[in-house]
Automatic annotation (TrEMBL):
<dbReference type="InterPro" id="IPR051534">
    <property type="entry name" value="CBASS_pafABC_assoc_protein"/>
</dbReference>
<dbReference type="InterPro" id="IPR036390">
    <property type="entry name" value="WH_DNA-bd_sf"/>
</dbReference>
<feature type="domain" description="WYL">
    <location>
        <begin position="139"/>
        <end position="205"/>
    </location>
</feature>
<dbReference type="InterPro" id="IPR013196">
    <property type="entry name" value="HTH_11"/>
</dbReference>
<protein>
    <submittedName>
        <fullName>YafY family transcriptional regulator</fullName>
    </submittedName>
</protein>
<dbReference type="Pfam" id="PF08279">
    <property type="entry name" value="HTH_11"/>
</dbReference>
<dbReference type="InterPro" id="IPR036388">
    <property type="entry name" value="WH-like_DNA-bd_sf"/>
</dbReference>
<feature type="domain" description="Helix-turn-helix type 11">
    <location>
        <begin position="8"/>
        <end position="60"/>
    </location>
</feature>
<dbReference type="Pfam" id="PF13280">
    <property type="entry name" value="WYL"/>
</dbReference>
<dbReference type="InterPro" id="IPR026881">
    <property type="entry name" value="WYL_dom"/>
</dbReference>
Amino acid sequence: MSKADNMLSILWMLKSRKRMTAKQLAEKLEMNIRTVYRYIDALCASGVPIVSDSGHNGGYSLLGQFNEAPLVFDLDEQKALIHAAQFAQEAGYPYGEKLNQAIAKLKMYTNQEQLHQINLHEKGLDVILPQADAAQVSMLQEVEVAVAQSSTLHIEYQKGYGTSTETRHLDPYGLVSWKSKWYVVGYCHLRGEVRSFRIDRIRSIVSTGGTFEKPADFSARQFLLSSVMPNNEKPEELISVKISGKEQALNDLCGHWFLIHGLVDRTRLEAHFKLEEKMVLNQLPVILLNYGRSIQIQEPQALKRRMVEVTKKLYEQYAAQVND
């Protein structure tokens, strides 16, 4: 067994009994008693509250409050947990308050040297994501509980960017955080199929009291990705798109989440994609506008004409405002 495994074994034996001597621990773990002493010292250095009593009935024991203390983590593990918590908080994790309590408890039971190092690493990392408001966090908590308990929900859902809402009964299968937005994926009784719904567009939510059974092996993550990613499974339905330009601009373009799956060939100054026609004429022009004159469309002609239409409409919109 590794040193870490042996240390954890000592910890669990001390948690399961009131007191154990070094000799008893050495016999249980089949190791030298001096090795037990070293492991006990290492556990104490990591913040584990081990009490040593001398005398005939002496031995090692744990302070009572350690039953609620965290597991023993080394410095890198503690740093990773705290950094992960920073990402979760910025993403609008629904149990942020409990997460803060867990991190505070982690810091409480570490030693002073590790605490100093943790604070240095914590200050050295910042995460910037759109913040979820209190209403959305509350909504996320309700949906998360419904997912875990397989409870059918009654929701009022805002359609698109309008003000009208629709009543839906939803069997929530899972929550997904994607591109700074939270989605609930589940079976929509109104449409009779699995759908995804943005949490920030749910205006009200109530449990119906009903329950459901989630399909076996269903992945909310995979469903959401498949619903937003281009469908490149039928090559005969795809059209060729060739774009040339500056190398750095092409690097960025080829790494775009909407295009990366359609990339079929790349040279230093040209990229070749195979994409759905609908996507090429609707979403792609908006994406390409961000690159300005650093790229040039080589084909198809339909995309060039569409770019002219999009830019012309933008010109007319703002030209009218300037001339007013």
